[in-house]
Amino acid sequence: MAVKLPIYMDNAATTRTDPRAVEAMLPYFTEKFGNSASRNHKFGWEGEDAVDLAREQAAALIGASPKEIVWTSGSTESNNLAIKGAARMYAKGPEGTKNRGHIIAAAHEHKAVLDPCKRLQNEGFDVTFLQPPADGVITRAMVAEAMRDDTILVSIMWGNNEIGTINEVPEIGALCHERGAIFHTDATQWVGKMPTDVERDHIDLMSWSGHKMYGPKGVGALYVRRRNPRVRLEAIQDGGGHERGMRSGTLNVTGIVGFGKACELAMHEMETERERLLGLRRKLERELSSRLEVVQVNGHAERRLPHILNISFGYVEGESLLMGIKDIACSSGSACTSASLEPSYVLKSLGVGDELAHSSLRLSLGRWSTEEEVDYAVDAIVKAVNHLRTMSPLWDLYKEGIDVSKIEWQTH
Amino acid sequence: MAYSDKVIDHYQHPRNVGSFGTSKEVATRKDVGVGIVGAPECGDVMQLQIKVSDTGVIEDAKFKCFGCGSAIASSSLATEWIKGKSIDEALAIKNTQIVEELSLPPVKIHCSVLAEDSIRSAIADYKKKNGVAAETAATASAH
């Protein structure tokens, strides 16, 4: 089978909406367009029924009750609501005072967790950002060591978006419950790919997005525990009192329908899909590592999501590598791909050297990835890396046996 | 980011890639000037080697570059431009000319600056090896 170009290997950024989810959504644009909050006519009831069904589908995927699902616009909003909402609700002191409570997060969390935490620092909360070890995995022991009597909230992501490493979330959740702290996890890359049970896994608050699991963009969910303990949040967006006052605003019924359908599909297909993606990712990893020298897979060797591979090619710069594989859509941790001119803070937090952080690719597979695409990608990457190494002065130095990291460079 | 056709052409068909020997070999050659600018942690390192005739003309130039497509194109273009020029003519090349030729966007201007620096640095090395006062050596990377 011929490979259709370009190949999409950026499923950690977003996924194609499953046509079955689109199909489910379509009537809600033009026929059943009612506002789910309209309680006194058929249009409104249709909308409400659709939202209720989606709430059941979302809850079923994570072992929750439908009443524990709060609809949002996506994981960024869910994270903001969970972190700011919980911190402000459980603050030890009044606003404007110092030491309003202690919060624990990890340094390689997504910006949508880091930045709300930094804002809370300005509001008087004390935040500990745990430095991940070289394998990127945050353990229960690390969180336990950082815990204090005044720790009110812990936010540790489940699967890392850049390197795919899996933190000890159920263990950390159990610790939080023992110590009486609220536990939030950003599970954007996890839910729909890996089995999730908020009871078994001791989750209080959990964020995820539709568009990372073959649903539409612009819709997300926040799981908010209602029993043992009942978690309360201070709303960020006020208005009509939707979502039990936690998130006002007319519901995105169409998006929610697609989100629900995506959850239902994930529930049925997760097991086989996970095995298939793991096989493909391992092949990708194995082939690249065997056909090229000086290759480093970033993050823990085994404890990783099935669909994400973050890999560095020594002495080759990431953006030029992307240019050489223009038929493969993926991302790079290179400075040049971002406006900041800084290489990936996630890789840096793991202690990956600058020269390897600049030369990293994140390849993320999805529901429509094929073995042919993997084979094509491997050939293209090998060719591009070799091409760039013939031009790389650092590669020459390496081949001459000179340690590039020991050279004093004229930084500019 | 969309690259200009000229950047893509230099990336795919870089001119004058190579060197006149290993770093050890060229260090002792008086007819060869070597400039290495940038740093791996900044995401770009350019190496320019020039071979200068007795009459002070750059007979040949070779580059190697670790960097983005614009950095590769800037150094490739630099070798094209300095070949056949006298040292003084080569020193007159400005980064803004490279920006214009390759249609580099603002975020990539540092690539052209690096290319200009690599020319100055290679010439300074040549002058130093041949006992000529190298007035540009100290300022080669100051930006």
Strand content of chain B: 15-25%
* Topology order of chain B in helix (H) and strand (E) letters: HHEEEHHHH
Strand order of the main beta sheet of chain A, please? 2-8-7-6-5-3-4
Please state the oligomeric state of the protein chains shown. heterodimer
Give the count of structural domains of chain A: 2
Radius of gyration of chain A: 23 Å
Number of helices of chain B: 6
Which blocks of ≥5 consecutive residues of chain B have pLDDT under 50?
A: 136-143
CATH class of the largest domain in chain A: Alpha Beta
The name of the CATH topology of chain B is Sufe protein. Chain: A
Structural overview:
The complex is a heterodimer of chains A (412) and B (143). Chain A has 412 residues and is of the alpha/beta class. Chain A is 39% helix and 13% strand. Chain A is built from 13 helices and 13 strands. In chain A, strand 5 (151-155), helix 7 (169-179) and strand 6 (182-186) form a beta-alpha-beta unit. The model of chain A has no long low-confidence stretch (mean pLDDT 94). Chain B has a single domain (5-128), classed as Sufe protein. Chain: A (Alpha-Beta Complex). Chain B has a 3-stranded antiparallel sheet with strand order 1-2-3. The longest helix of chain B has 21 residues, at 109-129. The radius of gyration of chain B is 14 Å and the shape is globular. The model of chain B is unreliable at 136-143 (pLDDT under 50). Classes of the chains: A alpha/beta (412), B alpha+beta (143). The A-B interface holds A 315-320, 323-324, 334-336, 339, 341, 343, 354-355, 358, 390-397, 400, 402, 404-405, 409-412 and B 3, 8, 11, 14, 17, 19, 22-24, 36-47, 63-69, 71-72, 107, 110, 113-114, 117, 140-141, 143.
Write the layout of secondary structure elements.
The complex is a heterodimer of chains A (412) and B (143).
Chain A: E1 7-8, H1 19-25, H2 27-30, H3 42-62, E2 69-72, H4 75-89, E3 102-106, H5 111-122, E4 126-130, H6 140-146, E5 151-155, H7 169-179, E6 182-186, E7 205-209, E8 220-224, H8 253-291, E9 295-297, E10 308-313, H9 318-324, E11 328-329, E12 331-332, H10 345-349, H11 354-357, E13 360-364, H12 371-391, H13 393-399
Parallel strand pairs in A: 1-11, 3-4, 3-5, 5-6, 6-7
Antiparallel strand pairs in A: 2-8, 7-8, 9-10, 10-13, 12-13
Helix pairs in contact in A: 1-8, 3-8, 4-5, 6-7, 8-12
Chain B: H1 5-12, H2 23-27, E1 32-39, E2 44-52, E3 58-66, H3 69-82, H4 87-91, H5 95-102, H6 109-129
Antiparallel strand pairs in B: 1-2, 2-3
Helix pairs in contact in B: 1-3, 3-6, 5-6
